[in-house]
Design brief:
One of its GO terms (biological process) is transmembrane transport. It holds the Pfam family SBP_bac_1. Belongs to the bacterial solute-binding protein 1 family. By secondary structure, the protein is α/β, with parallel strands linked by helices. It folds into two domains: 195 residues, Periplasmic binding protein-like II (D-Maltodextrin-Binding Protein, domain 2); 210 residues, Periplasmic binding protein-like II (D-Maltodextrin-Binding Protein, domain 2, 3-Layer(aba) Sandwich), CATH 3.40.190. Helix content is 46%, strand content 13%. The protein is built from 18 helices and twelve strands. Strands 5, 6, 7, 8, 9, 11 and 12 form a seven-stranded mixed β-sheet that branches. Strands 2-1-3-10-4 form a five-stranded mixed β-sheet, covered by helices on one side. Helix 2 links the parallel strand 1 and strand 2. Helix 2 packs antiparallel against helix 15 and helix 11 crosses helix 12. The radius of gyration is 22 Å and the shape is globular.
Length: 434
C-alpha cells in the first residue's frame, strides 16, 4: 500500500512537471489514430461512448467532434449519464447484452468489478499507453493488467471566496478546528459558510469517501481498514474515524446553506457563484460554470486543501484519478474504439480534455494552467505534499457510501444518533457482505 501511495504521488508530479516543460510546438509521444477513417477496411462505423461526465456534456462533445473531423469514417454515439445513475445503468446494459463499445470507469474497485465480470478488454501494452507515465499505469492496473486507460485527475479541495475571508480577517485554515472556526465566523457575519449540494447523493458520498479513509489511515493508523471490512474481520464500530467522520458531516450540515438536502450539485455551484458563500468542497468541475456566472469571483477566489485532521502535517492535498476509459471486450468495433482511445491519449486529445473539462490530464506534456484558483495549489505539487485517500478503498467492492448517506440524513434531522448510524452501517454490512 505504501508503495502504491508513493507511486501515485510521483506519477502526478511527473505529469505536471512534464507539462510545465512542454511547449506549444511539442509533438505528442505518438500520433493520434490514422485519419481518413482507415478502419474496418475503410467502411463507416459507429461506436458508442457512455460516460459519467454529464456536467460537461458540451465539453465532451467538442472533443468527440474533433476526433470525428480527423476520422471521418468513425462516428461516436455519445451517451452522457448522471453519475448517481451511471453504474446501475452500465451494469444493466452490459448484463443485458446491450453493447457499449467504450465507457468511463473509476480506477480501483469499479474497474476490478467489471474486469472480474469479463467486460473489459485488456489494454496492456497498447501503443497509446506509451503517452502515460509507467507509475500512473501501474497505479491504475488491476491484477497486473491495464483494463482502463487513465484520462484525468483532479485535486479535491476547498474553494473559498477571498473577499469574504479578507473582509472578516480569516486566514486559510490548516486544521479541521480552524476550518470550523472560520465557518462560524462567516455565519456570524450573516453569510453562508459552506455551499452544499447534498440532494445529489454523490456529493455527500464524495466527501464521506475521503474524510473516513483519510482519518482511518493517517490519524488512526488503520490503512487496511476497508480491506478488513471487506473480509468481515472489522466493523465500523471498531474504527474511531467512523465517529469522527459522522461528527464532521453533522457540523458541515449545520454550517451549510438552507435546504442542504434539497439543493443539488448545480444549485450549490450557483450559490457559491453568487459570491455570498464562503467555501465549497469540490473538485475542479465547477470552474467553467463559475467563470460564466461570475468572472470576477472566478479570477479572485482561492483553493486550499481540506484539513480533515487537527495535525497540520497530515493535511496534504487530495489528488485523485477521475475518469478512466475502457473498451468492452465484446465490442464488434474494437479497432475504431482503439483509435478513439489513441486520440484521447495524444497531446491534442489531452489538451482538449483540459480545455473543455477544466481538469488535469494524465497525458504527458499537456496543459496545466486551468484556472487562477488552481494555481494556489502549486506549492503542494512542487513540494510533493499530495496524497490519494482512494488508494485505501482500492481493495473493497462494498458500496458503503450509498447506505451511509441515507443513514446520515436521519441524523441530520435528529431522527437518529451517531451510535445508531454506526450500528445501522454494521448491520447493513453483515446483511449484504458477510
Amino acid at each position: 500500500m505504501k508503495k502504491a501511495f508513493s507511486l501515485i504521488i510521483v506519477s502526478a508530479l511527473l505529469t505536471l512537471l512534464l507539462a510545465a516543460c512542454g511547449s506549444s510546438n511539442e509533438k505528442p509521444a505518438n500520433t493520434a489514430a490514422p485519419t481518413n477513417g482507415e478502419n474496418q477496411g475503410g467502411k463507416p462505423v459507429t461506436i458508442s461512448f457512455m460516460h459519467f461526465k454529464s456536467d460537461f456534456t458540451d465539453g465532451v462533445a467538442k472533443i468527440v467532434e474533433q476526433f470525428e473531423t480527423e476520422n471521418p469514417l468513425i462516428k461516436v454515439n455519445v451517451q452522457p449519464v448522471k453519475y448517481d445513475d451511471y453504474y446501475t445503468l452500465l451494469k444493466t446494459k452490459l448484463a443485458g447484452g446491450d453493447i457499449v463499445d467504450v465507457f468511463t470507469l473509476n480506477a480501483g474497485a469499479q474497474t476490478k468489478l467489471f474486469s472480474d465480470g469479463g467486460y473489459l478488454e485488456d489494454l496492456t501494452g497498447k501503443p497509446f499507453l506509451a503517452d502515460f507515465e509507467e507509475a500512473v499505469l501501474k497505479s491504475q492496473s488491476t491484477d497486473g493488467k491495464n483494463y482502463v486507460m487513465p484520462i484525468n485527475a483532479n485535486p479535491i479541495a476547498v474553494f473559498y471566496n477571498k473577499q469574504i475571508f479578507t473582509d472578516l480577517g480569516i486566514e486559510i485554515p490548516r486544521t479541521y478546528d480552524a476550518l470550523i472556526e472560520a465557518a462560524k465566523k462567516i455565519k456570524e457575519a450573516g453569510k453562508t459558510p459552506f455551499a452544499l449540494g447534498w440532494k445529489d447523493p454523490w456529493t455527500l458520498s464524495m466527501w464521506l469517501s475521503r474524510d473516513l479513509p483519510s482519518n482511518s489511515a493517517l490519524v488512526n493508523n488503520q490503512p487496511d481498514f476497508f480491506e478488513k471490512l471487506e473480509t468481515g474481520s472489522v466493523k465500523f464500530a471498531d474504527n474511531p474515524a467512523t465517529k469522527t467522520m459522522i461528527e464532521h458531516a453533522q457540523q458541515l450540515f449545520e454550517l451549510g446553506n438552507k435546504d442542504q438536502l434539497g439543493v443539488d450539485y448545480n444549485g450549490a455551484v450557483d450559490l457559491f457563484a453568487k459570491g455570498d458563500v464562503g467555501m465549497m468542497y469540490m473538485g475542479t468541475w465547477p470552474l467553467a460554470d463559475i467563470q460564466k456566472k461570475n468572472p470576477d469571483l472566478y479570477n479572485n477566489m482561492g483553493y486550499f486543501p481540506y484539513p480533515f485532521s487537527n495535525d497540520e502535517s497530515l493535511n496534504k492535498l487530495e489528488f485523485n484519478p477521475d475518469a478512466s476509459i475502457a473498451i468492452n471486450t465484446k465490442s464488434p468495433n474494437k479497432e475504431a474504439a482503439e483509435k478513439f482511445l489513441a486520440f484521447l491519449a495524444s497531446k491534442e486529445g489531452g489538451d482538449l480534455w483540459v480545455k473543455n473539462l477544466n481538469s488535469l490530464s494524465y497525458v504527458k506534456g499537456t496543459e496545466t494552467n486551468i484556472a487562477p484558483a488552481v494555481n494556489d495549489l502549486k506549492p503542494y505539487f512542487d513540494s510533493g505534499e499530495l496524497y490519494d485517500s482512494q488508494l485505501y478503498l482500492a481493495k473493497t467492492t462494498i458500496d458503503w457510501g450509498t447506505p451511509f448517506t441515507q443513514s446520515l440524513q436521519k441524523l441530520f434531522f435528529k431522527k437518529s444518533t451517531v451510535d445508531q448510524v454506526i450500528q445501522e452501517m454494521d448491520d447493513w454490512i453483515a446483511k449484504n457482505h458477510n
